[in-house]
Amino acid sequence: MIKILVPLDFSDTSSNALYYAIQLFQGSSLEITLVHVFSTNPTIVALKNIDSFIEQDSKQMMDELIAKVKKEYPDVILKFKILKEHVVSAISSLGNSGNYDFIVMGTQGATGLKEVFLGSVAGGVISKTSAPVIVVPTGYSFRHLDEIVLALSDNAISDATEADPLRIIARMHKSKIKVLQIEDKKLHDIEKALTIIEDLKPSVDHIFGTLDVNTDLHDYMIKNDASLLCLIRGKKGFLDRLLKDSVTLKQTFESPVPLLILHDIVPL
Predict the structure, then answer these.
(1) Contact by Cβ (8 Å): 239, 199
(2) How many CA atoms does the CB half-sphere of 67 hold within 13 Å?
(3) Interior angle at CA 12, CA 214 and CA 239, nearest 5
(4) Which domain holds residue 84?
(5) Other residues' Cβ atoms within 10 Å of the Cβ of residue 243
(6) Does residue 6 share a domain with residue 97?
(7) What is the C-alpha separation between 268 and 264, in angstroms, rounded?
(8) Is 195 left (phi over 0), alpha (psi -120 to 50) or beta?
(9) Which residue among 136, 159, 186 closes a domain?
(10) What per-residue confidence (pLDDT) applies to 104?
(11) What domain count does the chain have?
(12) Where residue 252 sits, what CATH number does that domain have?
């Protein structure tokens, strides 16, 4: 059984991420836990009970969403959690519990609290969790994964098990894997990484970049019409460059396609 964690703020963006998760893993035994995280800081005694009202309202919206989804996808097991915590810490902690195979989340919610589901939160979760994260752009509709692009710099994959989440998705959809190597002045060595994922029979594409990793990745994905971009979070990966460039992880809300974020499991 594949177990997915989907953070929700009940916006169209987060609901769309839920449907993307269902469609991505459709055909597998699937359990999805929906988590809604809220926080309040009342300063007036009369507002001390606001938490219970927020929780009741959230529970009602959660029940309505679950009922709707169950009508369309009766075989999917749906669970939920409503938590009063800091949103990034709560989602990251659940991801680190080892109870979920993937976190699937949208990037821009519509709750009126800009910090809730903007790229900063997606970026925060990616930076703090050990679970694979799939980030779904606002309004993106699922389409078959004919090709998955894995962007690598140096030997970003250190261990075969690190790529297991990619293997699960690729084999489920019979996707072709294209390893993208963006070059600048130095020719990076990715032979070890290619050996580690040789069971996926990847092809390799080399391009000379502009030194703006975000732009290079965005333009490549648009030009090649791929359906999923996979990045490795590690000191040698493109994601590290994005972390240095922007605390909000530009690619998490500018990517034209969903992102699969894997984590380097070997300490560096």
Answers:
(1) no
(2) 6
(3) 20
(4) 2-136
(5) 18
(6) yes
(7) 9
(8) alpha
(9) 136
(10) 97
(11) 2
(12) 3.40.50.620
